[in-house]
Amino acid sequence: MSELRIILKSKPEEKKEIFITIGKKLSQSRKSSRKKLEGISKKLNLSVEMLNNIEAGDVSKFPQTIHITGFLRAFAEKVDCDISLELEQLTLQESSKTKKTPILRLPYKFSFLFIIFFFIFFISLIFILSTPEIKKEVSDIKTLENKKFQYQKNFNTTESENEEYINISSEKPLNKDYFEILFLEETWIEILDENKLLLKNGLFKIGESIMFEFKKEDSDFFIKSGNLGGFQIFYNEEFFAPFGLSGQVSKGFFFKEKINTVKNVRILKNEY
């Protein structure tokens, strides 16, 4: 059973076959006209070896800077041979190499629809962003970003030289009046002394804690926080629940005054 094979020729192979066809036609015409290669060589100023290569269909030895089609046309005129069809095929081969990829252009109708769709989408986006609810959400996001930046800035702030008030070790001071802040949520906090002199500030994570000692009987601390519900106090062997809700911001309070207020509220609750 015979097997049918389809061989797809590449463009270089097709071009080679065209040169072979041209060479055969030129050779037959020259021999028919009884002209010698030496005489044609002198008229075309081309060596006999090159003419032999043309008739053999081998133009690989020609310099790339030389346009071989010009010599083929001149050779054909000398031997009265018509190779116009083959030269046209070579021209098509060359033009296909430099042919640019066509640019995909949408029909006018589709281009117009696309512009209309884009315009409607743009107007809708402006309308959505201009609604009070969206404006508020965007404003809230910006506020949160500003707070985050401020917290980070405060976290990197250099602590005051009054570090004698601060004890950040895990061991509690012995026989000293102190209080400890235990962080239940990520919280920014700022601690100042009774004269509003900065002692410590920063953004603390869950599980961290800081302790402060009362060096004098009448000394006190002023506390600011960006999250009143994010920490609790341990003071005089007693825990005090968070002084506010999660995320509630406090502009500041004196520690002892706050503790006394909480204790008074507890007493009133117990009485009633």
Give your account of this protein's structure.
The structure is a single chain. This protein is an alpha+beta fold. It has 2 domains: 11-98, Orthogonal Bundle (434 Repressor (Amino-terminal Domain)); 155-271, no CATH class. Helices cover 47% and strands 17% of the residues. The chain has 8 helices and 9 strands. Helix 1 packs parallel to helix 4 (68-78) and helix 1 (11-32) runs antiparallel to helix 5 (84-98). The longest helix is centred in the middle third of the chain and has 24 residues, at 132-155. The protein is rod-shaped, with a radius of gyration of 48 Å.
Name its key features.
272 residues; alpha+beta; 434 Repressor (Amino-terminal Domain); 2 domains; 5-stranded antiparallel β-sheet; 4-stranded antiparallel β-sheet; 8 helices; 9 strands; 47% helix; rod-shaped; disordered N terminus
